[in-house]
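RETRY 2/3 - previous attempt timed out on the joint model. Re-submitting the same 954-residue input unchanged.
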Amino acid sequence: MIELKSVTKRFGSETAVDAISLTVNRGELCALVGTSGCGKSTTLRMINRLIEHDGGEIHIDGRPIREFDGRVLRRRIGYAIQSTGLFPHWSVARNIGLVPRLLKWPAARVTERVEELMALLGLPVEQFADKYPAQLSGGQAQRVGVARALAADPDILLMDEPFGALDPITREGLQVELRDLQARLQKTIVFVTHDMDEALALADRLVVMKAGRIVQQGRPLELLRAPADAFVASLLGGDDRGLKEAAITPVVERMRPLSPRLLPQARIAREATLHQALAMMFRERVERLAVVDDEDMPVGEISLRGIVGAGLSEGRDR
Amino acid sequence: MIARCLKRWVAPLTWLVLLLVLATGGEWLEPLLRWSEPEARRVLYPQADLLTLLLRHLQVVTIASSLAVVVGVGAAILVTRPAGRDFLPLVAQVASMGQTFPPVAVLALAVPVLGFGTWPIIVALLLYGLLPIVRNTLAGLEGLDPGVEEAARGMGMGAAQRLWQVELPLAAPVILAGIRTSVTVNIATAALGATVGASNLGAPIIAGIVNGNTAYILQGALLIGLLALAVDSFFAHLMRTDQ
Amino acid sequence: MPGREAPVNRVVPTLAVTALVTWLWLPLGSIAPNRIVPGDAYLLAQAVGWSLAMVSCLPLLGLLAVAWRPTRSGYRVALALTLLLLAALPFWLALMAQQHLDPELPQARVGIGAAWWLMLFWLSLLLIELRTRLALAGWRLALSLVPVLAGWWLAGKGLESLALRQELAGREEAFGEALVQHLLLVGGAVGMSLLLGAAIALAMRQSPRVERLGFALLNFLQTIPSLALFGLLLAPLAWLSARFDWLSALGVSGIGWAPAFLALLGYSLLPMVRNTFVALSGVEPGVLEAARGMGMSRGQVFRQVRLPLALPVVLEGVRITTVQAIGLTAVAALIGAGGLGTFIFQGLGQAAMDLVLLGALPILAMALAVDALLGALTRRLDHRAGQTTGTIE
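RETRY 2/3 succeeded.
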């Protein structure tokens, strides 16, 4: 668990972070968003003491971070950044094994751990272990960066726009992987990004910052439905907010049981989002879709009215 | 604004004034030089007056460097055009390998082929001076942002227009840096020309070493040093205004 | 093959035709009865006869044919032809000596002519061109030069009368000494400048003021022509050694190794400091940030990350500095520092061009060898850093 209590950071006369308070619970993925220069990266770096905070307190698992030696603290916290920061003169395996070696793990255990992580992140050992970072594609380098951050099995992971420099397809793929990884590993993750879709897709808790202050925080849906002010509303997509909400709401939430009416031809997977269901309706020019499970068996249906939620506020659909 | 402009001229002008004072000072420098060599019969270099030597030095360097600029920039432009691209790898490699050749060795090798005197020196300086110019012009032209090139093409500029209005102006700082290196090296190498019979600012130094007369050496050395500094700071000034 | 035809290579034929012209119409060499008298120049046809001259041109014509349809195997043939021409070069001189040298005159000597030198030059250019086209690794090129050198060594036996060898014959000891002295001066200056340069670069990284001042000073020093700097150091050193006995006991004086060493050191510092400084400052910030973020200590970051990443650039500095010092040491001969430059200036003074060559050629060879070796080493280290490997998607 990470707790920030009215934490402040000044650079000269400029206040970069202004008395922010934030709690990230164990196993939670917290995304810090905001325009550039809003203090989100500074906040992140104060947590592993790459930058020292001037005022307030930061606690990790109940202990103030000032009690730890900076280096010892950082070895306990995973860290992944946008440019990956992979050491160009070290092989992939050596890069991943960095922190375990810093922690003086025995060599055999380091090797074992490196191989385990490479498997976890879909990097075949025989293919990648001896490659150098310059020989990797952007997506592969980013995976190595994440593997390196996870190497010593830290409880906490700090990520500063780790997928920022990637093309949309690779990025989406890695986002899915991170979500799966998080479901399995249950790390406490603080994640800085300026890509709102990324933040909405990944975050358990969304923290919007502006000029060094937290403007609003909460679950993504809460913020989408009730933005605190015009800034948050526009950051979250302005008039597109509804579509963003649809993009993170699964079809299952608005699905109704199969009706006695004729089953619609067009079908959509149960895991799909409302956004995808809308797109399907638009494409097929229909108002109803059959919802199917993994084996393509119909489990329910969803209608346009159901998606837009008309039924929710007006009571029952006729 | 004007003050800042003047300030930039201070360094080159100071060196130039010092250079001219020393070159034309003649008689009244004698006491100063006497101090370095109290016993010698004469302390002023007797063969020719320093101003003449300075002008000859400048003449050789100017001719060689101007030719080197024309030939070097021209060659680099040629091999970066579609028609000459075949030659680009060879020219680029020779230009970078050639700089490994010590100037003294080039000068020394020029003599058996071309003979003694001023012309061999000019040819040797021209050849050696070409290398940094070709290399930098190539680097400048090849290092342009491909986006700019593409935009120029996309706007419908012709090949010549692209060269004169886009490529050369953008590559100018790098080319100028090459010319600066070339001229600096040429000034130093030309002085060595005194050993192969050229009469220029190297002559007093050689004479001083041969006769054991420190005053001669000082005159030559100070003048060459000041000349190099004046020219170099002039280029530094040019490059600063260029940006 | 239908449709796709390799584009005509215009570099190889251009070089081949130029080589052909200079080879046939410039003097191959000269024969002089002794050291003083200028020799009689011989064109190739006069030197070895028309039929052999024609034979010597055949590989060049072969190159023209190959260049018409350049394929990879075609370039290999061209490389073989070029190596053959190179290996054969000294034999033409040996043939000339055999046919025209008067056995009655023991002092008679063979001089190398413009055609020969230019042929060597064109063939080197051809080698460079073919190496690029074939993307040949450095060591393979070096390996392919072994038979050439063997050929030269073999031909050398028939060329005792070569003026260059005759110049060397009387001076074997002096030549060896000069070579050692040259190497010592270069090695000393470069080694010292590496130590000092690293220290200065580290100091510069501590404070921007030291950085500005240091670069201004070193740039100033680098601008002063070598002859002038050697000259300017003469006077104060002479004065110092006259004042302090222990200095003169060390061998310091106005003339000799001391001013040469000091000047060499001064010139060597700029490239060394510049490269070391840039190398240490140029490490990508993301890498350093990550290193710190992973919990590496300052010392660990410097030793394990910054230094190894900087090493190729530092080595590049050593290469530039060494090549420069080899040339400058030649100039230092003028102030009595010894070294191979001595032969150059003696030769120029006596108008004995072959003596000039005796000094200049080893200097050139040394510079090229150092450049190639250190260049290869730098690339190797860089390769480890993956910068030359390219991205594999």
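The beta strands of chain C are 27-32, 40-43, 109-112. Closing ticket.
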